[in-house]
């Protein structure tokens, strides 16, 4: 069969790939080539890629620094796969990784290489704190996403993803995340109510919660709709967990390495976690996942956590090049500046379109939540999420050459995760395409129905 068009490849994929495939259902393209922030499909259509491997491609597609690092490794006949046997490439990667982290954390840190996906890092982090504390229960948060393996799914706030799967661990307690636009405590409360609730719950002997092995949270919820935790709330959570000897795990798999305008999202709040899970950007676009944690938790026995593909040397070379480039070129500061510019354009749309309910995020991790002006949300507060409108906007963006993802409550939030090398001019073009798409869907939605 000739694979020379979108239609041919998508047809073959639909016939052979599992029904669990997702992105091709609403992003119907096959990619021929990609460079920087842009991709070109088999039919010659060009797109701005604001999905970028769900945030994996920090430097965009085929960045010269990453390509050169991989070519050097291959040309020099360096090993590609080593289990957890070390190499100079591995040690240089760890050097760069630790250099990117705050000194007060990295000076006490150990690193565990995991199987290649972010969800594997989450599984390892849970095993780590359960081993170190001897406790079983875990504190998670509503709206959370930590991956698709068993323990990671148990942490997820979205019950629809968990209901078909019997036998998931049931020792997870979901706490309210400070979603100020849709506060779990009602429209007159804020993040201070959320932190007080957590503290009171942990001190209540009748809460039903046994001594926790740890607490895990995303400093910015990604799939939850680009929800940044307020700095004050994060500081309170750090105080609460430290005073009660509860290891705090921060999931920086999507937010980490410059995306939010700091190298790590927890740096906005100036806190030091006990455990950080990392994947996506740290591999330079290749599969790599690690857990970095305080050395006091390192009570594992040899072989307590293993995995065949934790020795991906090509990913470590690409990851080292990516981290070094981000540090050398201050891409965290660049993401803050360009993200502020993009967010300003998106916020202006909230004044223009009633259907735009909330614009939020940090750096180049942004979200626009669409609402239905004619529908209430749980009887009070903001309007209900408008899932159909968001889906239509995503499709209209795609037709105009912009790839975005959806997330949040009801999948009603348009999410922007462009490469950190996005320029100011490109950010303006992305915003213009998005505004045009929203305007088109709004006009179609408000158009009078044709007479019967």
From TrEMBL:
The keyword Zinc does not apply. InterPro entries: Aminotrans_3, Aminotrans_3_PPA_site, Dat, PyrdxlP-dep_Trfase, PyrdxlP-dep_Trfase_major, PyrdxlP-dep_Trfase_small. GO terms for molecular function: diaminobutyrate-2-oxoglutarate transaminase activity; pyridoxal phosphate binding. This is Diaminobutyrate--2-oxoglutarate transaminase. Its EC number is 2.6.1.76. The lineage of its organism: Archaea, Methanobacteriati, Methanobacteriota, Stenosarchaea group, Halobacteria. It comes from the Archaea. Pfam families: Aminotran_3. The keyword Transferase applies. Keywords: Aminotransferase, Pyridoxal phosphate, Transferase. Belongs to the class-III pyridoxal-phosphate-dependent aminotransferase family.
């Amino acid at each position: 069969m000739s694979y020379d068009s979108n239609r041919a490849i998508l047809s073959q994929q639909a016939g052979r790939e599992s029904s669990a495939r997702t992105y091709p259902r609403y992003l119907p393209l096959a990619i021929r080539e990609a460079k920087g922030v842009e991709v070109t499909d088999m039919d010659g259509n060009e797109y701005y890629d604001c999905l970028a491997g769900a945030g994996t491609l920090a430097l965009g597609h085929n960045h010269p620094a990453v390509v050169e690092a991989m070519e050097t490794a291959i040309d020099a006949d360096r090993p590609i796969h080593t289990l957890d046997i070390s190499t100079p490439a591995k040690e240089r990667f760890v050097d760069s990784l630790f250099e990117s982290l705050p000194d007060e954390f990295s000076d006490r840190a150990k690193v565990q290489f995991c199987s290649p996906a972010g969800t594997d890092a989450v599984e390892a982090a849970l095993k780590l704190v359960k081993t170190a504390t001897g406790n079983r229960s875990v504190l998670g948060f509503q709206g959370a996403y930590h991956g698709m393996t068993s323990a990671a799914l148990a942490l997820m706030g979205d019950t629809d993803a968990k209901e078909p799967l019997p036998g998931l661990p049931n020792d997870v307690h979901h706490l309210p995340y400070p979603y100020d636009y849709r506060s779990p405590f009602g429209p007159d409360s804020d993040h201070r109510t959320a932190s007080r609730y957590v503290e009171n719950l942990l001190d209540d002997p009748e809460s039903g919660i046994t001594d926790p092995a740890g607490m895990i949270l995303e400093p910015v919820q990604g799939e939850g709709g680009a929800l940044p935790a307020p700095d004050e709330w994060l500081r309170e959570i750090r105080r609460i967990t430290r005073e009660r000897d509860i290891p705090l795990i921060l999931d920086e798999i999507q937010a980490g390495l410059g995306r939010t305008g700091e190298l790590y999202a927890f740096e906005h709040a100036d806190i030091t976690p006990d455990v950080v899970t990392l994947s996506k950007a740290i591999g330079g676009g290749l599969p790599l996942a690690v857990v970095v944690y305080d050395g006091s938790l390192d009570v594992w026995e040899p072989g307590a956590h293993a995995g065949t593909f934790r020795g991906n040397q090509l990913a470590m070379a690409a990851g080292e090049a990516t981290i070094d480039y981000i540090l050398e070129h201050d891409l965290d500061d660049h993401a803050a500046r360009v993200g502020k510019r993009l967010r300003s354009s998106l916020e202006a749309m909230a004044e223009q379109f009633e259907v735009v309910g909330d614009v939020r995020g940090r750096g180049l991790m942004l979200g626009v939540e669409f609402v239905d002006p004619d529908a209430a949300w749980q009887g009070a507060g903001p309007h209900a999420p408008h899932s159909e409108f968001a889906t239509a906007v995503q499709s209209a963006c795609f037709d105009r050459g912009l790839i975005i993802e959806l997330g949040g409550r009801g999948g009603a939030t348009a999410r922007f995760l462009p490469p950190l090398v996005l320029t100011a001019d490109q950010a303006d073009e992305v915003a213009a395409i998005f505004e045009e798409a929203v305007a088109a869907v709004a006009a179609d939605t408000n158009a009078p129905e044709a007479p019967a």
